[in-house]
Amino acid sequence: MRFEVVPAKHYHNTVTQAVASIHGEPPYASDAEQANWEIKNSGWTIRDNQNAAAGFELAKPFAVEAEAAQIASEMESAAAAAVLRHWLPRSFPGKAFTILLNMRGPTGVTVTWRHAARPGDVTDAAATILESAGLGMTATKPTSDGVFAKFTLVPSDALSAYIEETAANDGVAANAA
Length: 177
Prior knowledge:
By secondary structure, this protein is α+β, with helices and mostly antiparallel strands. It has helices at residues 31-34, 65-91, 119-132, 159-176; strands at 3-13, 19-21, 37-48, 53-54, 97-102, 108-114, 137-139, 143-144, 148-155.
């Protein structure tokens, strides 16, 4: 995945209680001063593996890993939607695609098109495009109503949660009918 949740760390001075960033030069100048500094976890942050950047200048780290994971998933999906909006139509000239960011349940991207392009070709093209962009997304099985076909892309680590939620929602819909 391009966006990954990692522990947020900082230097902590055990004598003065001062804190300093672990990025850049260490806050100590000698071995004697180093003994007063330790690296502590201060929560969770998001690293962009493509740009080797962490934190995104967040005011403070996330206290809960799950909250950071949700934001990372939304960032992964938003990046995937942008990449696909640009490149998928170029892979299938003359075909119109609707690419929507899905914020319900596990965040994902829904790709819909007129059934003129074969679903396997579209999912393969999407996978190649996203892999070249460093985005870890997994496609669900394409569905079709005879006119339109669609599939959903979810961050690779959220596929099982997406399948469970979809099955639960389908059960609720079937019970309501």
